[in-house]
Amino acid sequence: MNIKIDGFEIKFSDKSPRIIIIDIKDEILNKLIFPFNKFDITALEYKPFTRFTLAKSLDDLSNNELSKFLNKIIRDRNTGCFIIKPKNLISKIDDTFLVKLSTAVSHLIGTPNHDAMAGKYYARFFVKHVDKSDSYLRKAYTNMDLHTDGTYVKEKTDWLLMSKIEEKNVEGGETAMLHLDDWEHCSELFNDPVAKENFIWGSPKSKNIEYKVEHPVFSSDKNGKAQISYIDQFPEPKNMKQGVFLQKLSDSLEESNNKIIVKLPVGSSIVANNYFWLHGRKAFKEHKDLSRELLRIRGTFFQESMN
Fold first, then answer.
1. Which of 35, 109, 115, 299 has its CA 20 to 30 A from that of 159?
2. pLDDT score for 306
3. What is the pTM of this model?
4. Domains of the chain (ranges, CATH numbers)
């Protein structure tokens, strides 16, 4: 890859040329310590403009090249996904630093939605050995099947960021990804008449969303290519036809030979276009002291031109 940004190492993922890996060198991380220390987490939660200040401090260290590059990746259908992470987990990188880094990265590409589950612009949550939740999100020993985010809310969800804050006693739990253009059955399912019907989408109580929405599984982008809004747990089929279609869709996604399985190290953030990338997680190997903490931010692209 011929893109060069001082202080960052950039390469294609060995899992897929659609995924770009961006390693942040120690020299950049050390220069972020001072501006990141200016704001505590409470300030970021209560004063949205402080999040943009963090983002600018990161972008300025790249001579404002990083924001241009991230936006190019995330909006390009040929890529649409990047993993950004510290090259080394230096001693000053803790969970607070990683929340701030995730905040900075997300605010270079868009504006986060309010996350109703957490009541903030982001959500932090644990996956542990014992779970009593009402969602696959925290079910450690069950696959989280391929899906997109924001299926059950009124807000647009253009992109998703997931950061790994911490993990202990973890084996398995790899991230699964699938790009619609690599999916063997995309054309067949996209062109099925049921795919364009309105489906009802609800959510469990933990999501803190009281309403339901209606929308099709598939839509088209400006070039007529498939876009998807789907998660297996939340559609409420209106009839047999819709139920059978959803089962066929679920099976063909999970059986795809082109799923990408990625092991993400602690400190890394994966950011994906939510219209043509699906994501999931493999099951963990059982361990009574298993613990993983994740951070999620999802939102919309900036509306102004990025030129």
1. 35
2. 45
3. 0.93
4. 8-180+256-301 (3.60.130.10)
